[in-house]
Amino acid sequence: MSDTLKRIYLSSPHMSGHEQKYINEAFEQNWIAPLGPNVNELENILAKYCNVKHASALSSGTAALHLALIMLGVNSGDEVLVSTFTFSASVNPIVYQGAVPVFIDSEKETWNMDPDLLRKALVERKKNGTIGKVKAIVVVHLYGMPAKMDEIMSVANEYKIPVIEDAAEALGSTYKGQALGSFGRMAILSFNGNKIITTSGGGALLSNDETLISKSRFLATQARDNAPHYQHSQIGYNYRMSNVLAGIGRGQMEVIDERVQQRRANGVFYKKAFENIECLQVLEEPSSDFFSNRWLTTMLINENKTKVTYSDIQVALEKYNIESRPLWKPMHMQPIFSSYPSVLNGTSEQLFKTGICLPSGSNLSETDRENICNVIKSCF
Ligand SMILES: *Cc1c(COP(=O)(O)O)cnc(C)c1O
After folding, report:
1. Which of 74, 178, 247, 339 has the fewest CB atoms within 10 Å distance of its CB?
2. Is 199 in the pocket of ligand 1 (CB under 6 A)?
3. What is the mean pLDDT of residues 354-359?
4. Phi and psi for 307 in degrees, rounded to 5?
């Protein structure tokens, strides 16, 4: 049966129809390079949309985070406090730098970094005299849900530790009316194929600090000194975004608000479909201060009220060629990261055990959504 059904993905690329025009321009002008008008224009559009002064378009969100850490001086033996409930790309660049990730668990309302645990980690380090090793805090806005930024920023400011927002999943989300990506010293975005908009692969770094953004462009183009010959005084990277791909980004940004609205409509649909199934709880914003782009709709299955697990639901959906996925497995539980320090409260482990991500593309049809809900309801 599943062979004959068109696969429904968790989150697949959704073109606007405006992309080709900018790609053609790049070809006509022969800007087939990691610089050019599409790159410049995409940077302007992103900065404006996220309410920051500057943006640099890069080859991936991971590259953006790597450069952010380098510019904050993160080096061998330093510590970076990071959400444990996230995708590995939030952590890998910390390890590229030879630094130590310190995993901070989630609070229950947004599932993001718990400000109290963040404080606990900093208090402990102050007491031990190792606070000087803490070079940055990477706070993730997971599934598009804003973290509790007032509380996070207030703790970070108290200890004078710079914050990098990992807004890879959160373009279009706001906290107290302010765009995510505009709270920290820097922020990263991702335009990977599964994100709310895509350039097939790409990312960006955001900041109000022009020095940081121009430095990121310098580092991302092999750190070439200002000289007639090729001269290098620093290690560089090949992390810039191609002008062809930036054209896709321009076309995608023309419909970003529509995409946010479509993803949020999925969340509303699922919420309503399951409102009479007591053991299913779709994640919603804790208050009107939080506005999520609902990149993915997620829900928890209350294990005290049913024997059905996320894996039962996943198997049932797969029979109809519908993709679903457990929530992110916390980083402190990952084989590669399990030896690093962590400050835990059990929340992310519990979420991982009982949660599931539902198909959430902006291109889902009404029929797709109904079919998905019917399959899930049939499990109960
Ligand atoms: C996708 C993602 C990244 C990495 O972005 P890439 O562009 O794929 O390198 C980083 N953090 C989170 C939370 C992500 O979901």
Report:
1. 339
2. no
3. 97
4. -90, -15
What does the pLDDT read at residue 337?
98
| Total number of domains in the chain | 2
Confidence of residue 5 (pLDDT cuts 50, 70, 90): confident
How far is the centre of ligand 1, averaged over its atoms, from the C-alpha of 138 (Å)?
13
370 has a pLDDT exceeding 80: yes
Provide the H-helix boundaries in the chain: 19-28, 37-49, 61-71, 92-96, 115-128, 149-158, 210-220, 243-253, 256-273, 310-319, 347-354, 366-377
Q: What is the pTM of this model?
A: 0.97
Residue with the smallest CA separation from ligand 1 atom 8 is 192
Do residues 148 and 163 touch, judged by C-beta distance below 8 A? no
Strand partners, 206: 55, 187
Choose the residue to mutate in 59, 62, 141 for probing ligand 1, maximizing ligand atoms within 8 Å of C-beta.
Answer: 62
169 domain residue, yes or no: yes
Same structural domain, 233 and 344:
no
Question: What is the Å distance from ligand 1's center to 84 Cα?
Answer: 14
pLDDT higher than threshold 70 for residue 2: no
Average pLDDT over residues 334-363: 98
**Which residue, 205, 236, 253, sits at the end of a domain?**
253
Q: Is the per-residue pLDDT at 3 higher than 80? A: no
Q: State the closest ligand 1 atom to the C-alpha of 60, by its place in the atom list counted from 1.
A: 7
> What CATH number corresponds to the domain at position 293?
3.90.1150.10
Is the CB–ligand 1 distance for residue 165 below 6 Å?
A: no
Length of the chain measured in residues: 380
